[in-house]
Specification:
By secondary structure, the chain is an alpha/beta fold. It folds into two domains: about 120 residues, no CATH class; about 110 residues, Rossmann fold (3-Layer(aba) Sandwich). It contains 13 helices and eight strands. Strands 2-1-3-4 form a four-stranded parallel beta sheet. Helix 5 runs antiparallel to helix 6 and helix 7 crosses helix 9. The longest helix has 16 residues. The radius of gyration is 18 Å and the shape is globular.
């Protein structure tokens, strides 16, 4: 897909840069979920890259604004915007109006900040669907990320869809409010503290004996996965949430 043509689209698909770079097969799974399962027609602009969140967190506001302008140019077309990233959604909703208050077209800024949805939020609250008919016969721990809990405030939607997944053994810990420390440059500047946080998270998750760990933010999963590999942990894998929601059986 590319720039808008005469096709009648129903939704914009925003693929976060971490997914595009590190799990390049996942966007195809996401498109399959939206189009084949939900009946949407996805507009995906192949020139889209990043929302600018990481630059904003580092204080590089001009770079963040440049990427934000790009996103609004591509997706200010009237269609809802769906992305499998609570962190991107929370950032756009919370900070775009601050960044572009005096420079963006007000109607476009309003559309983007009001109509961007984390994937599970879109399915459950916009589409009013709580059961997808998917099957995933494994023990899965759902790790609730800081962004899903705080900035995006999309907490129950992923759990609803996971609970209604056929064959799944869903594992959660309501008392786990730890940050994996993948956000911004914290892990790079405080590697020992970051490893300590990850150890606490992984040790707690291992108590539940899961086969997989999933979350609504891929960059958190990637960071946890890197720690698992460094510890030579072979019994647990991470899996992007769309891969479970689109699954039709064992993988």
């Amino acid at each position: 897909m590319g720039y808008l043509d005469d096709k009648k689209y129903t939704v914009n698909l925003f693929v976060p840069c971490c997914m595009d770079l590190f799990t390049p097969s996942s966007p195809y799974t996401l498109i399959k979920l939206l189009e084949d399962t939900l009946g949407e027609i996805c507009y995906y602009n192949t020139a889209q890259t990043c929302c600018g969140r990481q630059f904003f967190l580092r204080g590089e506001k001009e770079a963040a604004k440049e990427l934000g302008y790009q996103l609004m140019t591509f997706f200010g077309n009237g269609y809802p915007i769906v992305t499998p990233s609570a962190a991107c959604v929370g950032y756009i909703k919370k900070y775009f109006k601050e960044l572009f208050a005096t420079t963006a077209v007000p109607s476009v800024l309003e559309h983007v900040t009001r109509n961007i949805y984390e994937l599970c939020d879109y399915i459950v609250n916009f589409k009013k669907i709580e059961r997808l008919g998917n099957t995933f016969e494994h023990r899965v721990f759902y790790f609730q990320t800081c962004a899903s809990r705080n900035t995006c405030q999309s907490i129950d939607e992923a759990l609803t869809l996971l609970k209604n997944t056929n064959g799944i053994t869903l594992l959660t810990d309501s008392d786990m409010h730890l940050c994996c420390s993948a956000n911004g440059e914290f892990a790079q500047l405080n590697n020992e503290m970051s490893d300590y946080f990850l150890k606490m998270i992984v040790d707690k998750i291992k108590e539940y004996k899961p086969e997989y760990i999933t979350a609504s933010d891929l960059h958190c999963l990637q960071y946890i996965d890197a720690y698992l590999k460094a510890q030579e942990e072979e019994n647990i894998e991470v899996i992007p949430l769309p891969d479970i929601l689109c699954a039709t059986g064992n993988i």
